[in-house]
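// run 5 | inverse folding | seed 20
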């Protein structure tokens, strides 16, 4: 399995995940993988300006715990990694990471939290 490494550059997390539009279509059509919860959270991110938000902002907007969004995206990303079965992602801290599989990430120092948006390949 190929190891993909995340780098943090100017507060942005960067990694060439190499998941194509066709890969995402296959994932999103897989009813055994796509739970209603995954669909709901992905759709909420998609509806945001530029398809970006923080888990905290979504939690406040929809009256839910920010951790619920974080956990859902993490579990979705793990399921995608397992389905594609061709890479493992190692974070800038040297530990396995999953968020960057479906999301783009930027750490906003002034806010002390991450702002994430759907990966460009989702915009098909």
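// decoded
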């Amino acid at each position: 399995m190929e190891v993909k490494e995340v780098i943090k550059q100017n507060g942005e997390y960067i990694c060439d995940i190499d998941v194509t539009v066709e890969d995402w279509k296959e994932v999103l059509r897989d009813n055994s993988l796509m739970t209603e919860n995954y669909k709901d959270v992905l759709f909420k991110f998609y509806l945001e300006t530029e398809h970006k938000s923080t888990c905290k902002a979504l939690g406040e907007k929809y009256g839910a715990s920010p951790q619920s969004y974080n956990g859902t995206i993490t579990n979705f990303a793990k399921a995608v990694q397992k389905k594609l079965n061709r890479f493992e992602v190692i974070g800038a801290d040297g530990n396995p990471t999953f968020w960057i599989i479906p999301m783009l990430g930027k750490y906003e120092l002034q806010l002390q939290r991450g702002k994430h948006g759907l990966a460009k390949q989702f915009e098909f």
